[in-house]
Design brief:
Elements (H helix, E strand, L loop, with lengths): L2 E7 L2 H9 L8 E6 L7 H13 L10 E5 L3 E3 L3 H5 L7 E3 L2 E16 L2 E14 L2 E3 L7 E3 L7 E3 L1 E2 L3 E5 H7 L12 H13 L3 E3 L4 E3 L7 H14 L11
Length: 240
C-alpha cells in the first residue's frame, strides 16, 4: 500500500513527537513542510504538494493515498490498515459532521455550567470517535464511534485522506484564500457541489491535541465561505 503523509508544522517538538517518530506511519513517505520561519498558508503548502508530486509527470500514472495531517494529530494504529478499508472515490477524515434538518428538542445554549433546552430546526451529529485534547495531551473521547463508514457533510481539517487518482481526475485543489481555517469545509462542499464527490468518516484510533481557535481570522474565513457559496451556514464541526 503506497501512502504519502503531508504535514505542515510550526512546532518542531510537537511534530517530532506526534508525526516524525510515530511508528504507525513509518511505512508512509513523509512530506514535511517546515513553517517555523516562513509562515506560509497551509493551503498553499498542500497545493504545492498536489502540483509538484501528485500531478507531476513522474507520478502521473502512479496511484497512492495522500494523508494531510496536522502536526498535533496522532495516528494510533497502522496507517496502511486504515486506508485498506476505504475506496478511492471519496474524501475521508477521522471526524466529521452530519447535519439533519427538521424540528428537534435539545440543547440550544451551553457555556460552562449554563445550559438551556428548546426546539431547534437542525440536529448536528459528530461522527468518528477520536481522543480530543485541550491544546495538550489531556484527552477526552469526542464524537460517535463508527462501526461502518459514514457519509458526512464535512470533515475536520486535522486529517484529510484523498486518493491521487481522485485528485487528478477532478484537479482538486485547496482554496488559498483560506490560510488555515475552513479549508476542509470548502474542499468538501466544492467537491460535492461540482463533482458529486462524497465525504466520509472512517473510524480510526487517533488523537488530536488542538481544540481550535475561533479568532478574527476564523470568522473572516467562515464569512468568506458563506459569501462564496451564497449560504447562511457552513456545514462544519465548528460554530459559524
Amino acid at each position: 500500500m503506497c501512502v504519502k503523509v503531508i504535514c505542515t508544522f510550526n512546532n518542531q517538538e510537537i511534530f517530532d513527537k506526534v508525526i516524525k517518530n510515530n511508528e504507525n506511519i513509518k511505512d508512509a513517505e513523509l512530506f514535511a513542510h517546515d513553517n517555523t520561519k516562513d509562515n506560509v498558508a497551509i493551503t498553499k503548502r498542500y497545493n504545492e504538494f498536489l502540483s509538484d508530486v501528485v500531478c507531476s509527470d513522474a507520478n502521473n500514472n502512479r496511484d497512492f493515498w495522500c494523508v494531510f495531517i496536522h502536526q498535533d494529530f496522532g495516528i494510533m494504529e497502522d496507517l496502511n490498515s486504515i486506508v485498506a478499508k476505504i475506496d478511492k472515490n471519496s474524501i475521508y477524515g477521522a471526524v466529521g459532521v452530519k447535519i439533519f434538518k427538521g424540528l428537534f428538542w435539545g440543547k440550544t445554549y451551553e457555556v460552562n455550567d449554563a445550559v438551556s433546552y428548546g426546539f431547534k430546526n437542525e440536529l448536528k451529529l459528530t461522527y468518528g470517535r477520536i481522543l480530543q485534547g485541550n491544546n495538550d495531551f489531556n484527552f477526552k473521547p469526542h464524537g460517535r464511534k463508527l462501526y461502518f463508514q459514514a457519509t458526512v457533510d464535512a470533515i475536520d481539517c486535522c486529517c484529510i485522506i484523498i486518493h491521487s487518482s481522485l485528485i487528478r481526475k477532478h484537479n482538486l485543489r485547496f482554496d488559498e484564500n483560506l490560510s488555515f481555517h475552513m479549508y476542509a469545509e470548502e474542499l468538501c462542499y466544492s467537491a460535492k457541489k461540482n463533482y458529486k464527490i462524497k465525504t466520509k468518516v472512517v473510524q480510526m484510533n487517533c488523537y488530536h491535541m488542538g481544540k481550535g481557535t475561533f479568532n478574527d481570522e476564523y470568522r473572516k474565513s467562515a464569512q468568506y465561505l458563506k459569501d462564496k457559496f451564497q449560504i447562511k451556514k457552513i456545514p462544519s464541526l465548528c460554530p459559524n
